[in-house]
Structures are given as structure tokens and as C-alpha cells.
Amino acid sequence: MAYRDNIDKLARRITDRIPAKVKKLSQTDPEYECLNEILNDEQCDLCLCFEVRKPLSFEEVVKRSGWPAGRVNRVLNEVCDIGMIEYNWENADHHKQFVLPQFVPGAAEFMVMNKDLVEEHPIVADFFEKMTRLPLEKVTPMVPPGGAGIGMHVIPVEKAIHANQEAVSVEKISHWLNKYDKYALSPCSCRRQQRVRGEGTGDVEADVCIAVGDMADYVVQTNKGGHYCTYEEVIETLERCERKGYVHQITNIDGEDKIFAICNCAHGVCNALRTSQLFNTPNMSASAYRAHVDSDKCVACGKCVEICPVGAAKLGQKLCTKDGPVSYPKQELPDDVKWGPEKWN
Fold first, then answer.
1. Which tens digit of pLDDT belongs to each residue from 308-341?
2. pTM reported for the whole predicted model
3. Dist CA 337 CA 345 (whole Å)
């Protein structure tokens, strides 16, 4: 098949991989391989009217493309359904605006959420896994606490916070839910990705991710398997996921005081948690809360070992001896030492 320069241009514009940005992609590079399979030339050319994460109104897209409005509307609907373009109304006069997202978090997840697309093109599942992992191979030592827009931010369920504790509002689920008046339950792209890749855990993939605000409209209206739900249904979903031991995470790429989803992530499946563990970079899934064992109540039942998403709790560890508490050495982190592939887990 002939090499498509427009696909190369679009893939390099979006990718976070530095080598891919500075030189022409090969046909086997994941960015080129995936976009080449799922986008026709018309769809690719419309996406090239955008810069990454810079919103455009419909009128601006028409002007940049030079196409008739009817053609722009048709192709925009196609690429929104695929997941290459998202939309929202986050602007002063609340007009609909369109955005070319980054690959992860962004377009790769949206593609996987489109069940018809990922079943027809399994390459999309591999693409999501690679574009989560590959861009981070060189930068993990530089990820600061909180992720700085890389990875996710872990939050606790509010009922688990003792009444006598102080907690900043950013750490409470209700803080985020109360900021929005629309919610939708949608499938988990990570669980679906792993199932399609033959590495699933048997977890149910439907109705575990909670889209909020304009993202709720997007996942419902663009063939992403989402459906609107009430605040009460959101709380019920969070409690169900809490009983399963899932990790509640929020996106952190949209700046202060904004999210677009709350994920309920499973250990061994979630790309954010898996990548954080692979590169041993806890800053990518940071939380302001830390778990501690109450030695007076511990009966070594092993529940914490089963549920801990990062394998921090292990059976056989002694909490104390007759001479007092046991002090275990802490694992080295990329913050402190030079980090390379030999240290990946």
C-alpha cells in the first residue's frame, strides 16, 4: 500500500513520542499503522485543520477546510464517532466547539469505547496500549507528584474519610460530582482493550466509567456506548466499584478545577495503573492519601493483599516484634536515581 503523507503528518502532530515527532514515521509505527487503517483521506484532511487540544467552532472548521458546510458537518460527525475529534461547550457564550485530543488520555480511549470500531479493527486495542506506554519510556524520571497532566489522580470514596480528618475538596468525589449536572455511564476502554488483546481479567467492561458534564453528551451521542444516569446511579456505581476494590481516578489534563470523567480502575487492566507500575512511577497515579495498617486490629486475613492495586501489601510481612515496630526499606524511585529499562517492572 502506498505511503500516505497526510496520515504521517496527522500522526506526528498528535503523538507524544519525541522520536516520532522529529522524523518521518514508518508504516509499522503504531501511530501511522492505526490511523492508516481507520481513517480515509477525507477524514484525515479534516483532522489536519486542527491543532492538538485547541478548540475550533464549526464556522472556524469550515473556514480552515475550505469545504462546504454540509461536507464539513458530515465528516465531523464521522470523526467524532470514530473518536478522533471530541466536542464540548466550554466557552463564554456556550457554543459547540470541536477539539483534536491527544492520543492518551484522549483519542485512543475514545476509539476503544466505540465497540463496533474496535471489534472491526483490533489494531485499535494494541494502539491504545502502546500509546499509553511508549511515550513514557524516556520521561518517567521527570514526572512530578500529581502527574502534571500525565496519568491519573487517585481519589478516595468520601465515606472512607474519617470525620475528624481534614481533606481538601479536590480529594473528595462529591466535590467533582456537584460541579456538574449531567452524568453518563460508559464502558471502560482499558478493560475492553485488554479483552480484545486477549489479556482481559473477566471484569465487566460496561457502566464502570462515569463521564461528567459535556463529556457525558459526547459519549452518549457518538457511539461510545454511554447512557445518561442520575446522581444516585453514579453513587450506586461508585459504591459497587468500591466493594470490588477498584481504584477511583480522575483525569488531570484539563487544568485546575476541571475533569471530564471518574474512572473505576481494576488492577492489572487499567493502563494508568499498569504503566505506573511498569516504570515504578507512583507520581503518575498520585493521591494525597496513604493507607496504613492498624496493627491492633490486623488479623492477617489477607483482604488488603487481594485488593491493593499496586501490590504494596503482602502476606508474611511482620508489623511488629516483641522489641517494637518493624521498619522496612523503601523501594527506590525515579525521583532519586537514574532510571532505565533495567528498572522497569
1. 766 667 776 666 777 777 776 666 766 677 777 7
2. 0.78
3. 16
